[in-house]
TrEMBL record:
Keyword Zinc-finger appears in the UniProt entry: no
InterPro entries, alphabetized: DctM, TRAP_DctM
Signal peptide feature range: none
Topology within the bilayer: Multi-pass membrane protein
Family the entry assigns: Belongs to the TRAP transporter large permease family.
Protein name per the record: TRAP transporter large permease protein
Keywords (A to Z) from UniProt: Cell inner membrane, Cell membrane, Membrane, Transmembrane, Transmembrane helix, Transport
Subcellular localization, as worded in the UniProt entry: Cell inner membrane
TRAP C4-dicarboxylate transport system permease DctM subunit domain span: 7-418
PANTHER family hit by this protein: C4-DICARBOXYLATE TRAP TRANSPORTER LARGE PERMEASE PROTEIN DCTM, SIALIC ACID TRAP TRANSPORTER PERMEASE PROTEIN SIAT-RELATED
Organism listed in the record: Lacimonas salitolerans
Assembly: The complex comprises the extracytoplasmic solute receptor protein and the two transmembrane proteins.
Residue spans crossing the bilayer: 7-34, 54-74, 135-158, 170-193, 214-236, 242-260, 272-293, 305-327, 334-350, 356-382, 394-422
Function: Part of the tripartite ATP-independent periplasmic (TRAP) transport system.
Length: 427
């Protein structure tokens, strides 16, 4: 049954059918051929119960927050400000790409939105200043992945919802690995550009007065992050309430910079509707598929298979990591999460592993999937913003950063406290 479902999933995805529809079709197929009784009669109740959850309301709020910041011009101001502070490093403006992605990851919660934001703002500068198109594009694609690790993360909200794990604890757990990855990307860029200076283009040093004035454009975003995350950690607000406060804060920042008008608001609302609808279709479709898979006994079959391998707990983790790396080549990241979590997480937790730690490990592997072909979404987002060159250039440029993510996954396995230190310290 596992083989049949995997082949069916890959076959449907290869037809370019939307992922949410693919999940429903697979659910219908499992129901028809493997389920002992018809489950489609309960589809309406399942769709309602899955979508009628207060935790999921945080998703459209965080999407809207990111849309407002992007469409009001705040992203452009932030990028220019970071350019003043980091372009003196070997690699120059590439560091501004990574730093901007890190900062927007701390507000938007979406990887694709972060990559699209930075790519739109940064790409016009690449050719003008003589940067290597491969490394420049790859850094943007990789930096965008931080959107699902650094809190507030939509993917962590979905993980917490599906596993009934504390979302504030997950946000805490993602902070150190997310910042460490951002720092790792910067270090890798510096090393590559010191070995081959032509990759880094022009290094620029700005007067101190300009750097200090640029802080005025950074302070509002930093304060917004502090308000959103701080209210959650202090227990003053749930993630949903904090997201609503974040939207109000984003509107205030946009208004202060003169970026609020009817056109901007209508575009932001339309973008939010499209992205939220896509996410919810995937979540609901995956819930239906997981329901049918559980009825058909796939979870028990997979558990028997892994148990039959006679693996140690650490051996199981390495097999799970390999599964996510392979599936990440072919399956869109949110879909990969919601399809596998109900099956994999219980097996991992039964071996004594912390579900919060595993959630962060999974997110690192999901980040890799965002920049590995043929389905790496961030690769397509960046290539779309380039409007020139080949997809191969973006793929090659992302390789060093994918290796950094693999190293982070190994570090999390070897030293779980990288993810668990903050949750345990503030629990």
């Amino acid at each position: 049954m596992i083989g049949s479902i995997t082949i069916g999933l890959l076959a449907l995805l290869s037809l370019s059918i939307p992922v949410g529809i693919v999940l429903f079709l697979l659910g219908f197929g499992v129901d028809a051929f493997f389920s002992p009784f018809p489950l489609i009669r309960g589809l309406g109740n399942l769709v309602w119960s899955t979508s009628n959850n207060a935790t999921l309301i945080a998703i459209p709020f965080f999407v809207l927050l990111g849309e407002i910041l992007v469409r009001s011009g705040v992203a452009t101001r932030t990028y220019a400000a970071l350019d003043r502070w980091v372009s003196w490093l070997p690699g120059g403006l590439i560091h501004a790409n990574i730093a901007t992605a890190t900062l927007f990851s701390a507000t938007s919660g979406s990887s694709v939105a972060t990559a699209a934001t930075v790519a739109t703002v940064a790409m016009p500068q690449a050719e003008k200043l003589g940067y290597d198109p491969k490394l420049f594009s790859g850094a943007i694609a990789a930096g965008g992945t931080l959107g699902i690790m650094i809190p507030p993360s939509i993917n962590l909200i979905v993980y917490g919802f599906l596993t009934q794990t504390s979302i504030p604890q997950l946000f805490l757990a993602g902070l150190i690995p997310g910042l460490a990855l951002a720092l790792g990307f910067i270090v890798i860029t510096m090393i590559l550009c010191m070995i081959r200076p032509a990759l880094g283009g022009q290094r620029r040093v700005f007067p101190l007065a300009q750097m200090l004035r640029a802080l005025l454009d950074l302070i509002p975003i930093i304060l917004l992050f502090a308000v959103i995350v701080g209210t959650i950690y202090k227990g003053w607000a749930t993630p949903t309430e904090a997201a609503a406060v974040g939207v109000a804060g984003a509107l205030a920042i946009a208004a202060a910079f003169g970026g609020v008008n009817m056109r901007m608001m209508s575009e932001a609302m339309l973008g939010t509707i499209k992205i939220t609808a896509m996410i919810m279709l995937v979540v609901i479709g995956a819930s239906f598929l997981n329901f049918t898979l559980a009825s058909a006994g796939l979870g028990r079959e997979l558990q028997d298979f892994l148990t039959g391998l006679g693996l140690s707990p650490m051996g199981l983790i390495f097999v799970v990591v390999l599964i996510y790396i392979v599936l990440g080549f072919f399956i869109e990241t949110l879909s990969l999460m919601v399809v596998t979590i109900p099956i994999i997480v219980p097996l991992v937790v039964a071996q004594g592993f912390d579900p919060i730690w595993f959630g962060i490990l999974m997110i690192v592997l999901i980040e890799m999937a965002l920049i590995t072909p043929p389905v790496g979404l961030n690769l397509y987002v960046v290539q779309g913003a380039r409007q020139s060159g080949t997809m191969t250039e973006v793929m090659l440029g992302a390789i060093p950063y994918a290796l950094a993510m693999l190293a982070m996954a190994a570090a999390l396995i070897a030293f779980p406290q990288i993810a668990l230190y903050l949750p345990n310290a503030l629990r």
